[in-house]
Amino acid sequence: MSKMFKKFEFFLFLVIVALIVFFAFSTENFFTWENLLDLLISYSFLGIMAAGMLVVLISGGIDLSFTAIATVAQYIMAITIIDYSGNLFSAFLVAGIIGIVLGGTNAFLIYYLKAPAMIITIATLNLFYGFTIFITRGKWIYNFPDWFNQSHNVFSFTAADGTYYGIPLPVILLVLVFILTYIILNYTMLGRKIFAMGGNIEAARRAGFNILGLTIFVYSYIGFLSGIGSVGQVLILHSVQPNAIVGRELEVIAATVLGGASLAGGAGSVLGTAMGVALLAIVWNGLIIMGVSSYWHKLIIGLIIICSVGINAYNRKRKA
Amino acid sequence: MNEEILTMHNISKNYGGVHALKSVDFSIKKGEVHCLVGENGSGKSTLIKIISGVVRPEKGAEIIINHQRENYLTPIKSIQKGIQVIYQDLSVFPNLTVGENIFVNYYTKGGIQWVDWKNIKNVARETIKKVKVNLDFNETVGLLSIADRQLVAICRAIATNAQLIIMDEPTSSLARHEIDALFSVIQQLRSAGITVLFVSHKLDEVMEISERVTVLRDGSKVGLFKRTEIDDKKLSYLMTGKEFVQKKLSEKVENRKALLEVKNLSKKNEYKDINFKLHQGEILGIAGMIGSGRTELAFSLFGMNPPNYGQILLEGKQVHFKSNESAIEAGIGYVPEDRIEQGLIMEQTIKNNTTVTIFEKLLNHLKMIDQKKQQSTVQHWINTLSIRTSSIENPVKTLSGGNQQKIVLSKWLATNPKILILDSPTVGVDIAAKNSLYQIMRELSQRNIGIILISDEVPEILYNCHYILLMRKGRIVETFQPEEVTEKELNDKIIGDGQDE
After folding, report:
1. What structural domains and CATH numbers belong to chain B?
2. Residue A71 neighbours by CB distance under 10 Å
3. Is residue B108 less than 8 Å (CB to CB) from chain A?
4. Residues in chain B closer than 8 A to A317 (CB atoms)
C-alpha cells in the first residue's frame, strides 16, 4: 500500500492540494466551508456511481447503462412513495432492488451473449431509458411527500446560538459506499476474485472461479449503487427529471480512470477513485467561481484526463 | 518408490469421427519425473485434459489414483486428488502480487469469506521456502520475467499440496539458464516426493530431466521407456516414425555476390560493433540466447529499430531504413520470434494472412482485391510449402504450429524477397514440421535468397547454416564454419559458461 502511495495516488494527492491552493488564492469564494460542503453534496452522486464503476472496471468490464438504471430507479421510487407512501428506507429499498435487477440483466446478457460489455450496455442504456421515457412521457415529478423532502439532513440539531447543524444524507451515503466498496475489494475473497478475473479471466476460470456469479455481482453492484445514489440525488434536487442523469456516463468513467483504474481491467483503488472524483469536482467548481467560460470546462477536463492517463501509462512502462 | 500414483487403462477419446486417443494405457510412479512426448496431434494434450478432468474419456476407461478407481475425473475432483496442471500460458494473474498468486486457489471456497492478508503472506513465504526459489511475495507478477512467473505457477500448485504436477511445454519461452533453473526446481520437487509429468517435444530436455518417457504417436501409445534405453535419435524416430538424417552444409559461399553487408553497427544498450556479410544463397546463423541482442539486431536490419552507429549496405549501396516499409520495399522479409503476437493475425483467414504483404499487387483496375488472383497466389504457396489445411478460408489459429509458421514464411516469400531473416523459426514446432521448414530453407538458398537464421537451438544452427556468428551480450564474440565445431562445443559456446548471468 505504501508503495502504491508513492506512485500514482500520491501524485494525484499533490495535484489536488495544488489546485485547492491555487483556487483558494485566486478566488474569494472557493475555500469557504459553504462552497466545499456544497461541492461535496453535489458530487456525492457522481462519487457513488464512480465506486460502482470502479468495481466493474477492475473486473475487466464496463457499464454505460448505469445512468439509465438510475433514472428508472428514480421514477419507480418516486411513483411508489407518492402513490403508496412509505418511508425513507422503502424508497432506498425500491431503488436498490430496481438497480440490482437491471444490473443483473446486463450481467446475464454479457455472459450468455458473449458480446463486449460496452455494446451490450449501450444497448441496455437505450432500452432502459427509452422505456422509461415512453411510460412516463418524460414528465417531471415534484410532488413528493413532506417526510421525504425533509429527509435531506440527518443528525440535525440547532445549537444554542441558533446555528443549524446537520450532515446531509447524500454525503453519509457517499462515505458508506466508499467504505463498503473498500472492504469488498480489499478484505473479501469476492473482491480479490474480481481483481483476479480482471487480471486474467482464463486463469480465473481455470482456478474454478464462478465467472457468471462474479459477473452478476459486479453489474448488480453498480446497478444497486446507481439506484440508491439516485435517491440521494432526488433528496438534493426535490425532483425527478428524465434527463438529469443520462449523459453523465463518461464523467463517471473519467473520474474513475483519473483515479488510476484501468480500462483493461485488474487495476484501481477506492482511494484513487475518491481523489479522481474530487479532482474533477474541484476543477469544475473552481473554474465556475473564477468565471471561466463554460466552453472551456470540458476542454480543460479533457486535458486533465489525457495527462493523468499519460502519467499512469508512463509509470507502468517505467516499472516494467 | 515403485508405487503408482496414477494408472490409466483403455483411455480413448473421439472427437466427431477423429480418434484423438486410441485405447491408451498410461501410468506414473510416485515421486518420479515422467515425460510425455509426441508430435502435435499425437494426443498429448487430450491425455492431459483427461487427467485434469477437463475432458471425459470414452466408456470403458479406468483411472486409478492412489488406489481409488474412477471412470472419469472432473476438474474439481482432479484438484482434490492433488493434481495440478501448469499450462503453457501459466495462468497467472499479472495484476496481483506473487503472494496472492500463490494463494489464489484458496479463494475458490464459496460464501462470504474474509481475506486474511497475514495468512496469505505466511502461505506464500512457506511455499517459496519449500520450493527453494528466490521470489519476493510483494512483487507484482506482471513485472516478473516469464521464468519467474513459471516459478510462481509452480509455487501455486505446491501451495495446495499437489501430489502430481503436470507441466505442459514449460520451457517454450525460457532462455537456457532459466531452463537450468527450472530443472533444479523440478529436482527439488522430486526430492520432496512430488511427482512431475513433464510434457514436451524438445528431445534434449526430455533426455536431460526424465526418468521414464511415454511416447505417443497418432493417438496411440508407442511405448514406455527408461531414459537409459533411448537417445535423441531413437526418441525422434519413435515420435515421428521417420528417420531424419542431418547433414552439415558444406558449400563455400564467400565468393558469391554479397547481398547484405553490416559494418560496425551499434545501438546503445542493445548491441555493439556488429560486422558481417551475407552472400547470395547463404544461410547465415546467428547463435545466441534470448537477451543476447539478437532480436534487436534483427529489428534494426528490418528497419524497425534504427541503429545509433554504423552502416548497412544492401548490394553494395548504403541504406537508411526509416521503417520496415522501406525494408520490405528493398527486399527484406522478417519472420518474427513470436508468430502468435507478431507474425500472424490469428483470427483472420489463411488467405488473408498469406497475402497481407502483397495486397497492393493483387488490386484490379477498380482498385479492389482481385479474388481469383488472391486465390491462386495462396494456392501456389500452399502447394509449394505443402501446408496442410482443409480450406484457405479457415482462420490461421486452426492450424498446427508448423503450418502456422509456413504461413508466415509464405507471406514473406510472396513479396519475392532477396533476404529473409528468420528469428527462432521453429519454436513450438514439432520434429516433422521442423524438418520440412529446414528443407524449405535449403530450397530458398538454392534460389539465391540470402537467409539469416537466428536461434539458440544447437542442431538447428549447426546443420542448416553455411557460416555461424556467435552472439553474446550484444557482441559477436566468435565466428566459425559448421564443420569446425561439434554439437557439444557449440552448445557450450552459446551458453558461454554461464557468462550470460
Report:
1. 1-82+163-170+194-243 (3.40.50.300), 258-498 (3.40.50.300)
2. 26
3. yes
4. none
